[in-house]
């Protein structure tokens, strides 16, 4: 995830996310890039990966020593890692969002579709509506923002970047401080968060968290509508209308791919297990177990002394670049979509959608100030220099 700080740098934090798909639980690395540099992230120039506390001290002198490690991480490891883009950002950059609600509905149907065949049918529908909008949408590789092409190694089906948005919102005050103070604030916040999470999972009544339980309960209710045909071993067919899927309990596979992607049993798997008298909790992926959740928060962040006790490295102090005042008001919050509802106060209601009614003539579409039928004498306004006279 990336955040911008006060002194015109971009900081890329390496963070871990817990199994509840909530805010990142810990940050281990900070990567810096000068905003004035024209070099891309892949190059060794102006790119330094450092431990958080030592970030500001060694940002200048570790560039050559870490270049080899970055080349291996970026060109070798990063190229083999599955990449996923935030669907909300994809929709915000897509020209189809200007065409109406029907295109927005089609977009989210495409993103959430689990199978390639269903994805192709939904894409054909959009292509028939508007060929230009479809071509604009397919400029970015669908493998990065649609579930139909995702792998099954990472047991996560989230399609947006909300965990990182929550993290950015939590550190919004620290982002405008100098680098060392900013990292110290983030470190103390993460230290407190680990303790809060430990208290949270101690209240769990099951082997998994409440969010996983809510998804599993919804699939249990849906499994009643599916008709099951068993092959006598571990294979089953599930039918409902024209839809039909297969389940293999020995390999924990369902042809809808929801079970493999999220690690949570789908409705078809629940129906098969109820038919065979199996326990659903035994087939839940271990990444959702409380044991795994405890491992994510098993390593506390150790306390450190203040700057007055930090050892002197003998390295020349790296001063921040000269601060330039950028035009306009600095943005803190994300850009709100055009059709996104505005946030109101708790005791206020929105007037959007209400029909205006005139209290004089009783007709709709105007109020008494612009009514021409109810008033005997229409107000005539004359402008004379800076004064307004009403007859």
TrEMBL record:
SMART domains in the cross-refs: ZnF_PMZ
Where is the stretch described as Disordered? Answer: 324-344
Q: Which PROSITE patterns match?
A: ZF_SWIM
Q: Which UniProt keywords apply?
A: Metal-binding, Zinc, Zinc-finger
The reply to whether Methyltransferase figures as a keyword in the UniProt entry is no
Q: Which Pfam families match?
A: SWIM
What are the TM regions of this chain, as residue ranges? none
Domain SWIM-type spans what residues? Answer: 245-277
Q: Which domain of life is it from?
A: Eukaryota
Keyword Calcium (UniProt): no
Name assigned to this protein? SWIM-type domain-containing protein
Tell me the organism: Gossypium hirsutum (Upland cotton)
